[in-house]
Automatic annotation (TrEMBL):
Gene3D superfamilies: 3.30.465.10, UDP-N-acetylenolpyruvoylglucosamine reductase, C-terminal domain, Uridine Diphospho-n-acetylenolpyruvylglucosamine Reductase, domain 2. Its EC number is 1.3.1.98. It catalyses: UDP-N-acetyl-alpha-D-muramate + NADP(+) = UDP-N-acetyl-3-O-(1-carboxyvinyl)-alpha-D-glucosamine + NADPH + H(+). InterPro entries: FAD-bd_PCMH, FAD-bd_PCMH-like_sf, FAD-bd_PCMH_sub1, FAD-bd_PCMH_sub2, MurB, MurB_C, MurB_C_sf, Oxid_FAD_bind_N. This is UDP-N-acetylenolpyruvoylglucosamine reductase. Residues 15-188 form the FAD-binding PCMH-type domain. It holds the Pfam family MurB_C. Pathway: Cell wall biogenesis; peptidoglycan biosynthesis. It is found in: Cytoplasm. NCBIfam families: murB (TIGR00179), PRK00046.1 (NF000755).
Length: 338
């Protein structure tokens, strides 16, 4: 393990922002990580954990030791005719893991195809798409305490998963480094194709009885049609969470905006698409210098090249104010500001 100084993080954040790490350590095993955390030289030094950088906005240089968990590997722990349990390293690219599962016929993550980032970041955010959240397939999360270097296993319940939330973003924020996760997947999966876009795309593909590979392919087609490739245009996918508002407020808004979509969360709460609110507030396709709002998906803020995190943050705050003024709805960022 080599610790470097003044390292550009442009290649480790999907916005492509050129922030620097004061010190940087790439970690390839749990043993390397625990050794680093026990090293007296670094024990009291500020630390920052950075995976694939697919859900962060770097607004400044990182005056800390940036630890990049690059722990790889997919291991079968248990297997029978019905299911398989896999242990996966935090450094594995999430989409590569999904493709591995699809190729093996392991069902449960196909709806999460093409989501950027690493396996280690997935439980932190409780990633989700097209009717599936990662909490439905995670058995446990393995992590290391930053302060003590001690290893700990968190059960699904202990992770306290919520909508794009987990204990690692709340009570234990910045206290643990996720080193791996254990997934239980189905060999006889029940497919989830309830979303209209998925059904429509499967029909266009000529698929009447879809397999998990068909579901994965349909979702990849949808995502590619709506979302820009970070390799071409810097972005972090959905910048804002879909707000959940009281049913009474939703009904009132429907009187003024009858075309407003909404999805019941429970008897008293409705989820409204943030992208729809942003588009109707006039931001879709907006550009300001090197940054802007994507022309095909208003939920995605982009860096066309040369933009800064501070500029993108300022734009996001303008959008929040605009949506609040027009609809009385507060948008919360899904992306983490650094």
């Amino acid at each position: 393990m080599q610790i470097q100084s003044n390292v550009s993080l442009r290649h480790l954040n999907t916005f492509g922002l050129d922030a620097e790490a004061r010190y940087f350590a790439g970690i390839r095993s749990v043993e390397e990580l625990t050794a680093l955390l026990h090293d007296p030289q670094w024990k009291d030094f500020p630390k920052f954990i950075l995976g694939g950088g697919s859900n962060i906005l770097l607004t400044k240089d990182i005056e800390a030791l940036v630890i990049h968990p690059d722990i790889r590997g997919i291991e079968i722990l248990e297997e029978n005719d019905e299911s398989v349990v896999l242990k996966v390293g935090a450094g594995e690219v999430w989409h590569n893991f999904v493709m591995f599962c699809v190729g093996k016929g392991y069902g449960g993550v196909e709806n999460l195809s093409l989501i950027p980032g690493t396996v280690g970041a997935a439980p932190m955010q409780n990633i989700g798409a097209y009717g599936v959240e990662i909490k439905s397939v995670i058995e446990s999360v393995e992590a290391v305490d930053i302060a003590t270097g001690e290893k700990r296993v968190f059960s699904n319940t202990e992770c306290e998963f919520g909508y794009r939330e987990s204990i690692f973003k709340k009570a234990l924020k910045n206290r643990y480094i996720i080193t791996g996760a254990v997934f239980k997947l189905n060999k006889k999966p029940i497919l989830n194709a309830a979303y209209g876009d998925v059904q429509k795309t499967l029909q266009e593909m000529g698929v009447a009885e879809p397999t998990i590979r068909d579901i994965s392919e349909a979702i990849m087609q949808i995502r590619r049609s709506k979302l820009p490739d970070p390799a071409e245009i810097g972005n972090a996918g959905s910048f804002f969470k879909n707000p959940e508002i009281p049913l009474a407020q939703f009904d009132q808004l429907k009187e003024t905006f009858p075309e407003m979509p909404g999805y019941p969360v429970d008897a008293l709460t409705v989820k409204v698409p943030a992208g729809w609110l942003i588009e109707k507030a006039g931001w879709k396709g907006f550009r300001e210098g090197n940054i802007g709002v994507h022309a095909r998906q208003a939920l995605v803020l982009v860096n066309y090249g040369g933009g800064t995190g501070a500029q993108i943050r300022a734009l996001s705050e303008k959008i929040q104010a605009s949506v609040a003024e027009k609809f009385g709805v507060r948008l919360n960022a899904e992306v983490n500001f650094i």
